């Protein structure tokens, strides 16, 4: 393990420690004020940070601590602060998270495309245009599916997390717009990197994932 990996592992461990302490406090605080909804969401917050590590283990991928750090940072605010401590009541909190989800999901879409094509770079012009379309379509598809989920919560459980009764379609549309803007920002960074042949965090992260997992599996086969 090189120095960067060691730093990433240490930072990840610090974030896990902070997450666990905050989670324990959320159980205590929710019980003390008899907030059963927040208590239930604290249980959910035990599971949400495990999604990415479980996916890595299922596909036998090598750990990429930059990805795990992004995951636990996002889940800390989206699941723990937002749901357990009512962060979504703060003005703009929800929109910032949807913007952040657009950033992260578009980067994940880049990784998925490279894995499907089994290449670390998109050199063919036609593939490049398909690539740009794919990563944005993937991001928007997930954003829409999330709004479907929130609508289902309203219909089947009368949980108005979609803010239907107070905002109508405004909340859903602005959530998806924020995710789209995040995705377009990532797209602009990728276009810049490809046009001027300059690497940055996003391209290096995707190439690192490809090298450690996809390329390694290709050689093994």
Quick structural overview:
By secondary structure, the protein is an all-alpha fold.
Could you estimate the helical fraction of the residues in percent? over 70%
Q: What general form does the structure show?
A: globular
What is the typical, i.e. mean, pLDDT?
90
- Number of DSSP helices? 9
Spans where pLDDT lies below 50 across 5 or more residues: none
Oligomer: single chain
Total strand segments: 0
**Rg estimate, integer Å:** 19 Å
The end-to-end span amounts to: 25 Å
How much beta, percentage-wise? Answer: under 5%
Structural class: mainly alpha
Question: Could you explain the architecture of this structure?
Answer:
This protein has 221 residues and is mainly alpha-helical. It contains nine helices and no strands. It has helices at 3-32, 36-47, 51-58, 65-84, 93-117, 125-157, 164-167, 170-196, 201-220. Helix 6 (125-157) packs antiparallel against helix 8. The radius of gyration is 19 Å and the shape is globular. The two termini are 25 Å apart. 23% of the residues are buried. The model has no long low-confidence stretch (mean pLDDT 90).
